[in-house]
């Protein structure tokens, strides 16, 4: 059957739209799968701060209305840094972040005083007189959603990935601090996990930000910077 006029134009337009959508889908899938998964331990260099600045691994909290670039940072009165917007991190019992699995912390996650007790990724640090700690959870404590295992990929020295399960505990409360968020979005100041990797030395740097939803820190955002040496799983 030969089509002409409006019928032909409608079929042609539909075919073009289908081809365009198919092409877009293929491109997105390729981007998501790009790079080689780094499965092992991202061993953390301890954070260090002095009058010259901060090195190693650390955390900062951004107040609502602030940005990573311009600031509006919350000052942690327990920080020993000259700039108290920095809370330095020290590696926990596992040496740092382990990809391909979860590091959920102890079953009893908090002390009677509300101090967080997880210590596999980092040692608990003090934030406004209460200890906070990091874990990676298989189920989001806030929403009950199942979460993916942490994954970091290397594409010729450029790191990307997802740390959706990255969870902070503080004062008997949990705050999802991962990226992307459990629903797959990047709400507020939440930004992709990005970084660099030297394949010869194993040195890496990873950074991302994640906005809190609800609770006493609603619309505050955490900025995370991890630095150290990657050791592949055996």
Outline:
By secondary structure, this protein is mainly beta. The chain is built from one helix and 17 strands. It folds into two domains: 7-36; 38-232, no CATH class.
Structure description:
By secondary structure, the protein is mostly beta strands. It has two domains: 7-36; 38-232, no CATH class. The chain contains one helix and 17 strands. The strands form three sheets. Strands 1, 2, 5, 6, 7, 8, 11, 12, 15, 16 and 17 form an eleven-stranded antiparallel beta sheet that branches. Strands 9-10-13-14 form a four-stranded antiparallel beta sheet, with no helix packed on it. It is globular, with a radius of gyration of 21 Å. 36% of the residues are buried. Mean pLDDT is 89; it is low at 1-31.
Which structural traits does this protein have?
single chain, 234 residues, mainly beta, 2 domains, eleven-stranded antiparallel beta sheet, 1 helix, 17 strands, globular
- Beta strands, count: 17
Radius of gyration: 21 Å
The best one-word shape is: globular
* Structural class category: mainly beta
| Biggest sheet features | 11 strands, antiparallel
> Please, what is the average pLDDT?
89
Query: Helix count, per DSSP?
Result: 1
Distance between the termini: 63 Å
Q: Could you list the spans in which at least 5 consecutive residues all have pLDDT below 50?
A: 1-31
Q: What is the count of distinct domains?
A: 2
In helices, the fraction of residues equals 10-25%
Strand content: 35-45%
Q: Which H/E pattern describes the elements?
A: HEEEEEEEEEEEEEEEEE
